[in-house]
Amino acid sequence: MHIIPPGLYRVDILILISYQMCHFFSIQQLFPIFLNYTPKTTCIDTPKGKVCYDVPKSKCLQYDDFPNVCANLTGTALSDCHTEKSHSYYTSAAMEFKIYCLPVWKDFRPAFVQYVGVLIGNIILGYVADQMGRKKTFILSMLIGIPSLSLSATFNSIAAFYLFRALTGIGIAGTMIVGWAYFSELVSPHQRFKLRTFSNWANARIMLTLVALFTGEWRLSSHVSACISMITLAIVYFILPESHIWLRKKGRYEEAEESRKRIAALAGIEFVPMPPPEKVENAEPEKTVNICTVFADPQLRKNILILWLMWFVTGMTAYLTDLCGGDMTKNFWVGQFLSGILLSVVRIIMGFADGYLPWMGRRFVLLCSQSLAIVFFGCVIAFLFAGEKGQWYYTAVYLAAFVFTSIVWEPCYLCASELMPTDVRATSTASCSIVGRFANIGASMLSGLKTVYEPGVHMISISLGLTNVIAAYFFLQETKNCSLDKAGTTAAKPAEKANEQEMTDLIDRSIQNEDLEKK
């Protein structure tokens, strides 16, 4: 008796699980939230006794004759005050190394060096994946990232800590960019949207928050995260094959057949060989497409430019909302869990809806999500002007703005795969990610505006969101259920026919009909 009956969906489930675990390593992109954490109050023993004080805006924990918030208290009240004010939700690298007190290091925080590593990885690994293969590049990324993640928490040197966080960033780039190209080419086309909704970033954020909550300090969190990430590496190395779509595009038809044979074996179905495409006499040879020649084709040029805009806007607004949302709730853990849980629930609902609502395409999701985010950002600004920050309805609209802004990532990734040819899919997605990484760095700089004029942060998100909506409405092409094998080419089939064509590449239609009759 099979736990999961034979069928292609057996492979799809394995890929969904693998991609979720891939996200768990990628979510290290947000681990600087925990690495940079500092409590709002702290206590220190002085010659005059224990002194508790409010941590200054600089977040430097060194005591500098600050007022004692527990002064004039005695007995039980004093003891309770010391307990309350000395409480810290998490022991971070910023607290251990006193990063915010060091003149040079505080200007180049862990997030900065990690984002530099991600940027370098985006530049290199996307091209390598298009040339060397998805699977090999993904494994290489994990072999760089996982040891670096663990080593970043091994040494007591702040320089070593920064170095290995930068190398971890290179691994993150591989799982974020090459991982998506790899898994999206293996999964059935009608399950591709579910690959972005069921296996999602929000679930990984919840997992990371749980790891941080139970470990309580950054070093153990890093080691545990590295161990869990080994699951993904093992599945890809020992079980999953190379992308058959990439192999056929490279003309390596025998290897592509071995990949398809492996998928059929995992699915428990009969393997039906697929012969190489017949050579047509006097046919024009298919031109090799690279990231430079993309701009020579008007349609591909339009596609890549709209993708860059989408990624820049989403990278800026999503990170601005995340970086500025630490105080939307009084309890640090509540805010982190709510952000992850709500986003995960919404994405899962969208995953189910995608299968039942054929009109819910990529454009529809982007336009609706971005428009709703704009509305909720407007509500956040209104509550800030009204002095209602901290109220439950402020938290509610802030979370709504965060969720709908984050959902825009789904059409960003899906369109990056479905608008570009296989030859340059990983490279073009990497170029989109590079644009997104620059937006992330910009967001980290603009987040400082919160301490000066907080409504200005959300006004920036509204203006960028409006730009995204207008551009997507006029220029974004619908790609739902398109065939990745012909994506971005003149031979691309209509979206409604792509699913049928791509499925017959894996299994003979007669076998499908027999399975349907048995059901």
UniProtKB/TrEMBL annotation:
Main subcellular location: membrane
Annotated ranges, domain Major facilitator superfamily (MFS) profile: 68-480
Record membrane topology: Multi-pass membrane protein
Keyword Transmembrane helix: yes
Matching InterPro entries: MFS_dom (IPR020846), MFS_sugar_transport-like (IPR005828), MFS_trans_sf (IPR036259), Sugar_transporter_CS (IPR005829)
GO CC, alphabetical: membrane
UniProt GO MF annotations: transmembrane transporter activity
Entry's transmembrane regions: 12-31, 112-130, 161-183, 220-240, 304-321, 333-352, 364-386, 392-416, 428-449, 455-476
Region forming the signal peptide: none
Protein name, UniProt field: Major facilitator superfamily (MFS) profile domain-containing protein
